[in-house]
Amino acid sequence: MSHTRLKGSERARVALRIMATSDVHATLLDYDYSKDSATELGSLARAATVIEAAREEVPATLVFDNGDFLEGAAIADPYEGGAGVGADNPVVKAMNALRYDAIGLGNHEFNMPAEDVRAALQALLPPVLCANLRLSRDRDASVYADLWQSHVLLTRSVTDQRGQDHDLQVGVFSVLPPQVVAWDALRIAGRLVAEDMMAAARRQVAELRRQGADVIVALAHSGVRDDHHTEETENVSVPLAGLDGVDVVVAGHVHRVFPSPSFGLTEAIDPVAGTLHGTPAVMPGVYATHVGQIDLSLVRGAEGWQVETQEVQVHDLRAEKGAAPVESPRIVSAVQGAHAQTLANMRRTIGTVKGPVTSYFSMVKDDCASRLVAEAKLAFARRELAGSGLEDMPLVASVAPLKCGGRAGPFHYVDVAPGAVSARVIADMQPYSNHVSVIQTCGRDVVEWLEKGCAVYNQLFAGEEGQFLYDRDTPTYNREAIYGLSYTVDLSQPARYAMDGSLINPQARRVGDICWRGVQIAPSQDFLLVTNDYRGGGGGNFPAMGQERAVEIAPARVRDILAQHIAETSGQRDETLETWQLHRMKGVKAVFDTGPGAAAYLDLAGLPMRRLGAVEGGFARFELDMARL
Predict the structure, then answer these.
(1) Angle at Cα 101 formed by Cα 434 and Cα 25, nearest 5°?
(2) Three-state SS sequence of 461-494
(3) Which residue in 7, 139, 183, 259 has the fewest CB atoms around it within 10 Å?
(4) For helices 329-346 and 90-98, what crossing angle results, to 10°?
(5) Minimal CA–CA distance to 140: which of 67, 189, 90?
(6) pLDDT-based confidence at 92, cuts 50/70/90?
(7) Are 598 and 615 in contact (CB under 8 A)?
């Protein structure tokens, strides 16, 4: 459809409204199960209230979800491999109650066992879409057969300004990152084949136009980044919006909000108007903190319906940004049984910890939360590798801080007091259902892995005031540390890798003094790296990764082995397990933001730092004297 403005036209004019959610991650109610407390941060139930009001205002309102909805919150966990799958899955109940018009798949849908994915998708009432993921002919993929379709053509009756009725044909298709085949290889490798998103989008636009679509909506489980597309690029919402025939883009996957001033104005991106290449686009954040809305005024011309005006906005559902909408009774009622069951499950005691477990300083030093996960991975891997012929190979483990503030806010941290540990603590430390993966690698690849993990930090300069150690909204889940090696990180050097994994400074080296049991590692030295299946399959674009390097082990979730480890050890940490530290820098005092709860652990952190006070967004700011490290 053309986006030409037809001012003053007396031709038929109609209103079409698009409402969108994305990356909800099973956040059905505004409740933090890991903290066992109600919150005011957003939920699908709050989003439903906004959506219901939007439907009242504009009769021709279409509601879409853009993927990553099935897992991510504890209320969805009991439904993995147990009772309550299918129509009894609370996520399915909530989404059916909200009455979506179509749902696009995200990569995290495939974190679940294939049989549970099948049961859930079959029970959803709206059409489920994915245009670039198909069944393989090389392996039995019947468990995924007939669960989604490439596109749908929706007919909506609209009334123009003169009271005349028209049937509007709205075509909708969905795409997701093709890397999902590697990220979730444990479940879908050989069963599903992924196609480049842009290639699939071009084909869908042509087909929907052939079928008579007046408007085409692209559900892109893909981020707003830049407009340089290469084959199988992970974030293509900008070039996708530039395709002739695409009228609306719903973006997601990277957990950001668009339109937003956090994006710069470029030739392709207008963060104020909410357009990409002039096409209206919205990206509604993560965990149902926002709902996207696009309003189109369409006029009928000689070539069919055309966009006269467009308005893009995101509704912020967090109380800190205003009065949070009430939770929809329809959604609350649909999931109240699952909510009660989840509370009982999460309150089960599984063991104890002898000291506090926090992630407030995970980006500054080795922390107890990451260390416990690393120890659990290593203990599991040693048991699995016994008798395999690989048990004598050097074994190390990588861990990233999954709950460390950032875009998720000042309370998105692990904070566990000494004493009894319930199941909710495990979910707090491991919010995703990733499985353990063991990768066979070598010293030179370990070095590159570590360099990529340190790309999240800023370069620091002696004598400069107010330098940030890292940007507050940096994706901390890409800050991989390796336990079992000792090494230092020198931030006087520029990053060797960009956040997307591209090599940007080939001569730069931040990571040094890398030793295994006190001896410098050799480039050809063999290692076994215990990580998770997302990272081992290439997630985050870390170098020298891939499922072809994986060692066969029994399937096990990181969350489950962590629970077992705490039950067996009472969280008694192995302080001899070596890991990283920041390199001393004279004349540098770097600042960083963390959760306000960090103040209680300042003495325990043992770092030369001081609290500067509260800052915007509810965070607390600290200053680290790097000359005294």
Answers:
(1) 20
(2) CCCCCCEECECCCCCHHHCCEEECCEEEECCCCC
(3) 7
(4) 170
(5) 189
(6) very high
(7) no
Find, among 626, 593, 583, 590, the residue nearest to 608 by Cα: 626
pLDDT band at 292 (very low <50, low <70, confident <90, very high): very high
What is the token pair recorded at 481?
A: 């540390």
Model pLDDT, residue 232: 65
Helix, strand, coil percent values for the chain (each to nearest 5): 30, 30, 45
Distance in angstroms (rounded) separating the CA atoms of residues 547 and 438: 10
Cβ-based neighbours of 262, under 8 Å, separated by 6 or more: 256, 271, 473
Question: Which residue in 498, 404, 400 sits closest to 451, CA to CA?
Answer: 498
Residue 477: how many CB atoms within 10 A of its CB? 20
Q: What angle do CA 289, 252, 180 make, to 5 degrees?
A: 125
Write down the pLDDT at residue 338. 94
* Full set of structural domains in the chain with CATH: 13-342 (3.60.21.10), 348-628 (3.90.780.10)
Confidence category of residue 542, pLDDT binned at 50, 70, 90: confident
Contact 29, 335 (CB under 8 A): yes
E strands within 128-214? 128-129, 133-135, 151-159, 165-175, 192-194
Note the Cα 119 to chain centre separation in Å.
23
Residue 581 is encoded by which pair of tokens?
Answer: 């530290």
Cα 570 from Cα 275, distance rounded (Å): 52
Say whether pLDDT at 182 is over 90.
no
Q: What is the DSSP letter of 273?
A: T
Given a contact cutoff of 8 angstroms between Cβ atoms, the answer to whether 410 and 618 are in contact is yes
What six digits make up the tokens of 262?
């956090």
CA-closest candidate to residue 408, choices 259, 286, 225, 251 = 286
CA of residue 372 relative to chain centroid, distance:
23
